[in-house]
Amino acid sequence: MQDQKRKLYEYLCGFISDERRNKFERYIESRTRYVTIAVEDIYQPHNISAVLRSAECFGIQDVHVIENANKFSPNPDVSLGSNKWLTLHHYRGKENNSLDCIQQLKKNGYRIVATTPHEKDQFISELDLSKGKVALFFGTELEGISKTVIDNADEFVKIPMFGFTESFNISVSTAICDYELTERLRKSAINWRLSEEEKTDILLEWARNSVQKPELLEKEFLKK
Q1: What is the DSSP-derived secondary structure letter of residue 159?
Q2: What mean pLDDT, rounded, does the chain reach?
Q3: Residue 99: C-alpha distances to residues 42, 43, 129, 141, 191 (Å)
Q4: From the CA atom positions of the chain, what is the Rg in Å?
Q5: Residues of the chain with confidence (pLDDT) below 50
Q6: What own/partner pairs with CB < 8 Å and gap ≥ 24 does 148-154 have?
Q7: Which sign does the torsion angle of CA 164, 126, 27, 65 carry?
Q8: CA separation (Å) from 87 to 84, 146, 156?
Q9: Does an H or E element contain 207, and which?
Q10: What does the longest C-alpha to C-alpha distance in the chain come to?
């Protein structure tokens, strides 16, 4: 199956520029799933768009979008197409979408790390990455993360602040945390890189997102 996917990727690359393909091959080596981001019920399109853009820029491949009261609606002028290069996971339609997301992440070996001031919190720079994969949760613009996330979190982190304002904008918070964790991760001895199978799957999706009518091209490929 992976061999077939790789051949399909090579075929689709015949319809994109060498420059773009070279970017695919370069950027895939910096992608990680060791750290992932989960956003809970963000309602301002420019905020969710900025979250996606930051995750993509720092090489975080997966973003988990929890839609309770608010529908996922990114602003293309802010996201600048970043969602084309990310793997987005949507949680909607369940009785408790936040809990569904948490359970899925824990099943896949992630620690649930909530970003909120808490009596057992630590600074983001103190989070021990060697303990295992991290799913960093961010809440709504005004209320922060839900009680469901707080009750099910494994750890709590906060960003150091030295001014009168109580908190950063969520898009700023995610960018700071993304940078802090990915920078430390890449300097560590932790195996944070994607597997060869994951690389192939993502490369194929990138190629599909880069050509017109990919489904028709795939049909032509299968005929051969």
Answers
A1: -
A2: 90
A3: 16, 19, 23, 19, 28
A4: 18
A5: 78-79
A6: 148/96, 148/98, 148/99, 148/102, 149/40, 149/98, 149/102, 149/112, 149/114, 150/114, 150/116, 150/118, 152/99, 152/102, 152/112, 153/112, 153/113, 153/114, 154/111, 154/112, 154/113
A7: negative
A8: 8, 24, 25
A9: helix 196-208
A10: 65
> Which amino acid is it at 125?
S
Place of tokens 């910096």: 30
| 204, 14 contact by CB (below 8 A) | no
pLDDT tens-digit map of 44-102: 777 888 899 999 999 999 999 998 776 666 555 544 568 889 999 999 888 899 999 99
Structure tokens, 29 = 């080596």
Give the Å distances, CA to CA, from 116 to 121, 147, 158, 160: 8, 11, 6, 11
Residue type at position 36: T
For residue 173, what are the CA distances in angstroms to 5, 37, 51, 73, 131? 37, 12, 9, 20, 23
Amino acid symbol at 198: E
Hey, what are 185's tokens?
């991760």
3-state SS of 93-155 is CCCCHHHHHHHHHHHCCCEEEEECCCCCEEEHHHCCHHHCCEEEEECECCCECCHHHHHHCCE
